[in-house]
Amino acid sequence: MEKERPIEYKVSALKTRVGNHPILQAFPQPGMDHANPFLLLHHLKIERQSGDHPLLYVPPHPHRGFCPVSLVFDGAVEHRDSLGNDEIIDEGGVQWITAGKGIIHSEKEALNENGKKYCNFQLIQLWINLREQDKLSDPSYLPLTKDQLPKVPFEGRKSKVKLISGNYKSIVGPERRTSDINIFTIESVKGEHLCFDLPHKHQVIVYQLEGVSRIGNEFVEPGDLVYFEPEKGKIKISILESGKILLLSAEQWKEKVVAHGPFVMNREIEIMEAIRDFETGQMGRM
């Protein structure tokens, strides 16, 4: 039997803000700048039972050189962009933006079918890098409903595991341009044990949104992130309290990362070019 992969470290997400909204930032943070190709993980959770929080609204802004990916766990998000897309992503869905050479978009929290705010709203935004040769590719937008995300079967388990991108045990995620990057969402059920046999060359990240898990000798609570270096060994998650989990795995990229605000490139001069192209309208207009 293959051994369990040892944990490299566990960190707790930092509290920060996007506009008027408090969020958790799992990375970058001191001690974990990024895990290229994973560059940023923001976690926003609004519970309106405890107060009348304003609707989330992020005004039009540009991106270049990476993929901003939004995973909607509760509520719904309305997206508009400079390509002409206007979509609402409901609970359980994902929007995958490949910014490429440039896109401008806005996001706001959508109302429910009765025209009222959702009681709960929960979103993960994940920034995934693009390879140097793809950074100036044509931008694209892929909306995915929860029914378009394939389930990964775990025999005898009630926990629901879905694959957004990558390949796992003959299951292929619907986002095909990043087939070497695995992104799983997990609705975990108390008392169950989940074991993932991921490629040994992959670094692995587990982020706990809700509930409590035990991984190795660590108790993992909401806002905790566990990181594994590439190494032989399976990833085992014991569910102590039902919840929601994000699991990421990919080979480490050795390309240089130069980031400035909404732009992620390989060289400082390319950041200057991105700013120029945005200011002169070459990334399109809303």
UniProtKB/TrEMBL annotation:
Highest rank taxon of the organism: Bacteria
SUPFAM superfamilies assigned to the protein according to its UniProt record, in alphabetical order: RmlC-like cupins (SSF51182)
Pfam families xrefs: Pirin (PF02678), Pirin_C (PF05726)
Family: Belongs to the pirin family.
Residue ranges of domain Pirin C-terminal in the record: 190-284
Entries under InterPro entries matching the protein: Pirin, Pirin_C_dom, Pirin_N_dom, QDO-related, RmlC-like_jellyroll, RmlC_Cupin_sf
Organism: Mangrovivirga halotolerans
PANTHER family from the UniProt entry: QUERCETIN 2,3-DIOXYGENASE, QUERCETIN 2,3-DIOXYGENASE PA2418-RELATED
Membrane spanning residue stretches: none
Name this protein carries in UniProt: Pirin family protein
Residue span(s) of domain Pirin N-terminal: 26-128
